[in-house]
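Possible regression after last week's pipeline update?

I re-ran a chain I had predicted before the update to compare outputs. Posting the input and the new output here so someone can diff against the archived version. Not blocking, just want to make sure nothing changed silently.
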Amino acid sequence: MEDLRDRTLRGGFAKVCALVVNFLLRIGSLMVLARLLDPEDFGLVAMVTVVTGVFEKFRDAGLSVVTVQRATITNEQVSTLFWINMLVGGILGLLLLAIAPLLVSFYHDPRLFWVTVVLAVGFIVNAGGVQHSALLQREMRFVALAVIETLSLSVSTAVGISMAFAGYKYWALVGMGISLPVISTVCFWLATAWVPGMPHRGVGLSSMIRFGGTTTLNTFAVYIAYNLEKVLLGRFWGAEALGIYGRAYQLINIPTDSLNSATGGIATSALSRLQDDPNRFKNYFLKGYSLVLAVTLPITIACALLADDLILVVLGPQWTDAAQIFRLLTPTVLVFALINPTGWLLYSLGLVGRSLRISLVIAPLVIAAYLLGLPYGPSGVAIAYSAAMTVWLIPHMVWCTHDTIISFRDLLRAARQPFLSAIVAAAVAIPVQFFLGQSLSPFLRLICEGTILIFVYIWMLFYVMEQKAFYLDILWGFKRRSA
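New output (post-update):
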């Protein structure tokens, strides 16, 4: 178990470093591309990527989770899973090619045909790295995964920005999207040095495929729930409206996506090894849950209070219409911080059936909200989305924790100190924002108000709530294990 702690902390430290670098890369690329490309360029590509995203949920058929979660797995089983992934990737690529004319007809834009054709190639490339990535995660080689993730994002970002500077417009976003899986798949093969063998029958795949199928249906339902509004906005409000909504949505989700990427793989891998040790499982989970909330809460407050300045600084003055949408989507940052870690709990305990049932309830709830907000445009959809997710929060947490090692009360206790600290920080930041007014430039206002907000939050959390020892222990643990 000490080795598990070592690997978890070492992987956590690597992921934190990668998180910071990747966050800066994503923000930096967004700042540059938002100034080089038009909202229509982003909206045009989003019309296709929201559909390819549906296919993306079937890309690994849930079999990467199988490789990570199972207590034991053989080389023959992994090889067979690899070839199943390749078959699925090929089928998805061909299906996407087949629907390219349908997308052109649906959106009434012929430019979408070749965009769809190019992005279809990514499914075959991605499929070739699924099991290699899963093997790295299973072996808890999170340092290698962090390096690959950062390198792939860096190269794809450079490709996108270079193409945008060269005047390729929306093709810059396509080039950025297709280069990412190419680089990452090549790196996964080099890092594992594993060459798959021939597929085998009779190696116990039936239970794996059932697990993977349930996982895939779960991610598919969740994706539809959280992305259908983009299809509706593109169809009924056009590429420009979708481009503005999409940039606000992307920017608001960068903290959530980054934290989920940094913590999800590590937490699921570590907790899966602790299924038979309830006390350690509970301790690990609640520490991780509290840490995610502690990081997310000040980000949520900053997004709500500093939306106008954030949009001006990050995207530029031509995107001011996105500020209102950005602010309206802010509640979802907090909601996802509270519910995403429950996925670690369900997957590590093998409760994928429950996770699927929860997703099948979320999907119609959120879709109904989109339809109610759609007549009012992007702002109406943003309000409806945030309201639906907020209403669903408590039922989701209760359902996930029912009859598990973790109780709903445990989650509340873990969230109490970060929440109280965040409330006080917001109460201080609001009058500071009013006092500064328009006396400073947007960038300086952002720095001053953000610094005060973070300072008050940390002071409350560390000293008033007496959580300093708890978080510093985690930090020093990262440093010790990395050394």
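Follow-up from reviewer: compared with the archived run. The radius of gyration is 22 Å. Marking as no regression found.
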